Amino acid sequence: MTGRHAGPPPDRPREEPRDVHDPEGVRLQKLLAGAGVGSRRACEELIAAGRVTVDGVVVRELGVRVDPRRAVVHVDGQRVQLDTSLVTFAFNKPAGVVSTMSDERGRPSLAQYVADRPERLFHVGRLDAETEGLLLLTNDGELANRLAHPSHGVRKTYLATVRGRVRPAVGVRLRAGVTLEDGPVEVDAFRVIDTTGRQSLVEIVLHEGRNRIVRRLMDEVGHPVERLVRTQVGPIRLGSLRPGTMRELTRKELGALMAEVGL
What we know:
- It is a single chain.
- With 263 residues, the protein is an alpha+beta fold.
- It has 3 domains: 26-80, Structural Genomics Hypothetical 15.5 Kd Protein In mrcA-pckA Intergenic Region, Chain A, CATH 3.10.290.10; 88-151 and 236-260, Alpha-Beta Plaits (2-Layer Sandwich), CATH 3.30.70; 155-233, Alpha-L RNA-binding motif (Alpha-Beta Plaits, 2-Layer Sandwich).
- The chain is 21% helix and 29% strand.
- It has helices at 28-34, 40-48, 111-114, 141-148, 168-176, 213-220, 251-260; strands spanning 26-27, 52-54, 57-58, 65-66, 73-75, 78-80, 88-93, 122-124, 132-138, 156-163, 178-180, 183-185, 189-196, 199-206, 225-233, 236-237, 246-248.
- Strands 7, 8, 9, 10, 13, 14, 15, 16 and 17 form a 9-stranded mixed β-sheet that branches.
- β8 (122-124) and β9 form a beta hairpin.
- α1 crosses α2.
- The longest helix is centred in the last third of the chain and has 10 residues, at 251-260.
- The relative contact order is 0.15.
């Protein structure tokens, strides 16, 4: 059986690249420099090399203008926040401070630590009053909503001082899943860092955000928490930040955090 040979497919019209230029906007290299990417000259070189995209389109022309409030810009695949009115901070929450901007019972709150900031900051998630460590503060509503949404599964790392000597079987059980009163929980990672006397220092990584989840987990496996510090949220580390102090995220940190939640 023979059949006709199909001829070459008809030429498809070529798609013209989308025009991302906004005549009312700001020059792209100026915005990149203002966002801390580099000097104006260095940013021009990045654009000319095709390393910058605007709304998914590679931009090579130096005259392109964009709206910093709307344009989605990446450099080498990493998101750059062009809107300088949006800020995100890492804060080392001390024990005894509640994760609210005010407290009707008069307890120390976050408000006293952000009182000198011109922006209206809010916290991403929360830590119970006695838990110390990393809390993100921002005025970027979209970033905060995505970080808090369970669908993104942002991992959080904790160091916990717990009672007793933690045996290997405890880690196996936690990784397999523990059922609490509000449902099952699986930790993403667990390891014993040190054991001294009647205490152990353990590291726990999980993407759950339920209330007092680490304390309830360790209670369930027979090792109540005596001290708890959150050391990391997604790619952001607490590092050497002193309790009660805050620092603005670097451009690279912010880009990595935004990538974590698909921005």
